[in-house]
């Protein structure tokens, strides 16, 4: 049996097997956390096991983060933001009224700022805009693929994720997508959507899962390689 648990901010794939002791792995390329546990062990015991190893898990996940020294965006005129794989220059403009804080137009991304706007506030405005873009693109894709897969998700969450492009809670049917996908080409978002929906059929990444992926999206392995090769985009 395979399931998922959350310990603090860490999402963990748990697989129960005919083994004698629990094993913990943090896997490339994104630092996904997986636990193999004896079939007789309770989920509570697995949670305590993961909690006791959180410091080690975080240390291992740092190995999969972006290149050291990569400068974060300051959200100033002329910096580059990405949307669906395309670069756009950022332009700051005075924000008036209650209109949208971020708009795409004229080949640039315009960020409306008020007097004394901080880097943190600008970053939050852009992050909220990316979440809107991703949700707007993901929902039609989910509606497209649910009939082919024969399963329906229960809820979609969009959030920043350090180690995954997406996740599926097979217990309640909820799917999460990484906000960073809004910066990647659209076909990579579609790949992640299909990947997570297929987990509603098969929770693990076994041959059954792979057969479903090949039937639905024959080029999925190419997309997976492309996504995993993609370096982090500053934010």
Structure description:
This protein is an alpha/beta fold. The chain folds into three domains: 2-62, no CATH class; 80-126, no CATH class; 131-229, Metalloproteases ("zincins"), catalytic domain (Zincin-like, 2-Layer Sandwich), CATH 3.30.2010. The chain is built from six helices and eleven strands. It has helices at 43-52, 54-62, 119-149, 186-198, 207-216, 220-229; strands spanning 2-7, 10-17, 23-27, 32-38, 80-83, 86-94, 102-105, 108-113, 155-159, 166-169, 174-178. Strand 7 and strand 8 (108-113) form a beta hairpin. The radius of gyration is 20 Å and the shape is globular. The model is unreliable at 66-70 and 231-235 (pLDDT under 50).
Give a quick set of tags describing it.
6 helices, globular, four-stranded mixed beta sheet, 3 domains, 235 residues, Zincin-like, disordered C terminus, alpha/beta
